Structure formats: structure tokens, C-alpha cells
């Protein structure tokens, strides 16, 4: 996942079958993120132009006026990254894979992004290798 501005600036040349490649990232490393077939088919354009139009303002408008959700100014992509990370982990995702998807150089940053619901802490009991001795 990336900042909103990076996503809006993505060009078709960065899209390959079921993957998006980010270049010139904050960590100075290119990052390729897998995407679903459905998303690929939705955003693929056989041109070299941008994949997306400017959509941050309309997105925030819909959040506020249709859904009643107000985010602090400039925080939509930040909140979405945290939400994605939390749900990725709650669905059984691997923290190392999440680190790569989010583009973090340090796993400790990923751990800050991946908040857990309290019920998921009980998973520590069921997955404990000593529990079945």
C-alpha cells in the first residue's frame, strides 16, 4: 500500500498482470505488490497515462456526507493503511508479508500498523505449541 498521492500518480507502465510496481519509494527500493485479477481487470488501461484520476477530495466527501465518517485532514490514506494492516493480520496474514506489502524497512513499523482486536489475542492460546502437551 502506498500514500494516496503515489496511488493517484500511478501510470499504466507500473501495472503488469496482477501486480503493481512502485518506484522511487521512501525506502529507495522498488516494491511490487500483488493485486487480484478483478482489480487488475478494473484498472487496466492500454495507454501509458495515469491509472486513476484525482479522487481524494471526492472520497473524503463520500465518507463524511454519505457515511458520517469524519477523518482528521490528510489522514484518509493513513487510516486506510492501519485498517488494511489490522484486517490482514486478523485474517491470518503473515507479518513479514505485510511488511513487504506496506513497504516498511523495519518490522517494528509494521507492528505499529497492525493493531489487533482483543479477541484475536486468544489465538495465542490455541496456537501455543505447548498447549497440546
UniProtKB/TrEMBL annotation:
The keyword Coiled coil is annotated on this UniProt entry: no
Listed PROSITE patterns: TYR_RECOMBINASE (PS51898)
Any GO molecular function: DNA binding
Domain of life: Bacteria
Transmembrane domains' residue ranges: none
Record-linked Gene3D superfamilies: Intergrase catalytic core (1.10.443.10)
UniProt KW keywords: DNA integration, DNA recombination
Span of domain Tyr recombinase: 1-126
Pfam families from the UniProt entry: Phage_integrase (PF00589)
Biological process (GO), any one: DNA recombination
UniProt xrefs under PANTHER family: FELS-2 PROPHAGE PROTEIN, PHAGE INTEGRASE-RELATED
Protein name, as recorded: Integrase
Organism field: Vibrio mimicus VM603
Lineage: Bacteria, Pseudomonadati, Pseudomonadota, Gammaproteobacteria, Vibrionales
